[in-house]
Design a protein that fits this description.
Blueprint lengths: L2 H21 L2 H6 L9 H28 L39 H9 L2 E2 L1 E2 L5 E2 L7 E2 L3
Antiparallel strand pairs: 1-4, 2-3
């Protein structure tokens, strides 16, 4: 229940002890009864090494993510083996108003057509780009 407060007090005490060890001269430490302590080299080396370690971990995680990410021109950035692409889009026209369709991915052809083109028709999920008349997509240049 009070672990956070105890951790706060312990960290403040450790920081004060570190500052006393790092900045007081040897005579002052000996007069306080502290005769055995690490070299002052470690007062600077430990924080620098900790910073370099954190920087290395940060750069290593970014590098691992770059290595594990597919290139932008890879097909894997569009779909994968777990995609649930709607195969039968023709039955969507006969559904009722209160119908909630199953969750599926929209084929990339439909997404591109909706976002970047003014096209009559729809992709049926099989790669066929046909409209109601059976013709292939006709682009309207308006």
């Amino acid at each position: 229940m009070y672990y956070g407060f105890v951790l706060y007090l312990v960290s403040i005490m450790a920081y004060v002890i570190y500052l006393i060890w790092a900045y007081l001269p040897d005579e002052a430490l000996i007069s306080l009864g502290i005769t055995y302590y690490p070299s002052r080299y470690w007062a600077l080396a430990l924080p620098v090494w900790t910073f370099v370690l954190i920087l290395f971990i940060y750069i290593a995680f970014i590098s691992i993510n770059f290595l594990n990410t597919a290139p932008l021109d890879s097909f894997n950035t569009i779909t994968d083996d777990y995609a649930n692409i709607g195969q039968d889009l023709s039955r969507l026209s006969v559904i009722k108003d209160d119908f909630v369709p199953e969750l599926h991915d929209i084929p990339i052809g439909i997404v591109n057509a909706c976002l970047y083109q003014n096209i009559e028709g729809i992709n049926d999920g099989q790669g066929n780009h046909e409209n109601v008349d059976g013709d292939y997509f006709r682009m309207s240049h308006s």
